[in-house]
Amino acid sequence: MFYAIRPEMLARMQELEARDARERAAGLPASQRLRQVAPQTGRLLALMAASAPAGTWVEIGTGGGYSTLWIALAAEVTRQRVITFEVAPEKVLLARETFRVSGVEEVVSLVEGDALAYLPHLEEIAFCFLDAEKEIYRACYEAVVPRMVRGGWLIADNVISHREVLRPFVEHALADPRVDALVLPLDRGVLLCRRT
C-alpha cells in the first residue's frame, strides 16, 4: 500500500505537508492554519482502515483532505468508500481540489455539513477517524459507537496535545465497556477504540 502511492497523490500529500509546516513555523494561530495529522499518523490510519471489518468508513473533520488521502489509500486496496465531513467552506474547497488532483474521487464522498446531523442515518460503521473541533469529540463518539460493527475502529487525534480539553472524553472512552481503548503516544496523541 505505502509503496504503491500514485505520483499525483504523493505530490499532493507533500504539498499539504509543506503548507502545514510553513504555517506552523510562521506561528499562525490554530484557527488560521490548515491543521492536519502528521505523516506517521496518516500511515497508522491507512493500516487501521485496511484492517477494519466490512462496513461504512467515516471521517469527521476533512480539513484539506490530507488524512483522507491516507484513508483513501486503504479504501482503494480494500474496495471501500470513505464518507468525510467538513463544515468550513474554505476547507471544503481545498479538500475537493485535493481529491480531484489525487484521483480519489471514486472512493471519497465529501459532505459539506455537520457530521452530527448525518451520523444518525449511518449504520454498520467499521472505521471512523475523528479530528474535528475538540468540543464535539464526546458527541461524535456517542453518535458513532452505538452504530459500529463488532471489531470496528474509532480513532481520535490530538488526545495528548489537547489533553486538558479532551481529558474527560478520553477517560470516558477508556472506561467504556463497549470498546477496548488505549492512548497511543504517536505525534499529537491518538486514541484507538475497537468495538467489542
TrEMBL record:
Keywords: Methyltransferase, S-adenosyl-L-methionine, Transferase
Any GO BP annotation: methylation
A Pfam family annotated for this UniProt entry: Methyltransf_3
Alphabetical list of InterPro entries matching this protein: SAM-dependent_MTases_sf, SAM_O-MeTrfase
GO molecular function: O-methyltransferase activity
PANTHER family on file: PUTATIVE (AFU_ORTHOLOGUE AFUA_6G01830)-RELATED
Name under which the protein is recorded: Methyltransferase
